[in-house]
Amino acid sequence: MQHDTPPVFRFAPSPNGLLHLGHAHSALLNQKICRKMAGRYLLRLEDIDQTRCTPQLESQMLEDLRWLGIEWEEPVRRQSEHFADYAAALEKLRRMGLVYPSFMTRGEIKRAVAELEVQGDTWPRDPDGSPHYPGPERDWSVEQGDAMRHSKAKHAWRLDMKRALEQVGEALTWWEADLGGAGQRQPIPATPEAWGDVILARSDTPTSYHLAVTVDDALQGVTHVVRGRDLYEATSVHRLLQKLLGLSEPVYHHHDLVIDDDGRKLSKSDGDVSLKALRQNGVEAAEIERFFRFSTP
Ligand code: GLU
User: Fold this and answer.
1) Residue 1: pLDDT over 60
2) What is the mean pLDDT of residues 88-102?
């Protein structure tokens, strides 16, 4: 693809735990492709969960990335400093009549779905395995929803998927490109309906991952999203939000995940080998690059 301006890449970790080999793979692959295409490399800290993301974990993350040899442009974008951008996008969708406040707790949703399934139905589940929202609020009037919100009930703002799809009125696709290889790209049919009425914000967290990532990729002018296959299905939601909000559309490359000896993907919470621990055990950054074949021995 030809670009008048340099392509823009980003690595977007969440500072809610220590970086591990899976993050190193993603950060290095972004850098390799970015350099090959003479692009710009941005770093974005996805720290919307202010209870799990801490300044200590953030400094550790920056230190690990520097040690790894990642070079990013300053300033780093911290999502927690941009809540107003996500609120504006949510408000736009609200004015379009595409979001509604929902009040059922996780436990209530589970019980309601279990009851529905006892009656013989199989209730739809999203690609992550969570049931689609079974509550009645999408059919409420705006006044009903507002009255309930003002009674201070905790709530989540959900996208009315059916209406959103009607509004778009055409099948959507996104571009998946083999950026690590020959660069061929192909259109992938987006299936946002598989997710049901996704959460876009909560009364106590002003944005969800889906909303923030879509808004930020556009605001930062990201042209190439290189990230793990675990986010492949979520791209359908991002594509729909881009269309509804009139935002630019990057090209995607979803890379394989680093898995452990038992075939599980690495995770921060399982205490999998962190970059910090590897470094403390004398591993060199160059060895990690060689391990992923990002450099020749
Ligand atoms: N913050 C996300 C994560 O750490 C990545 C988001 C993305 O690359 O789109 O898994």
Assistant:
1) no
2) 98
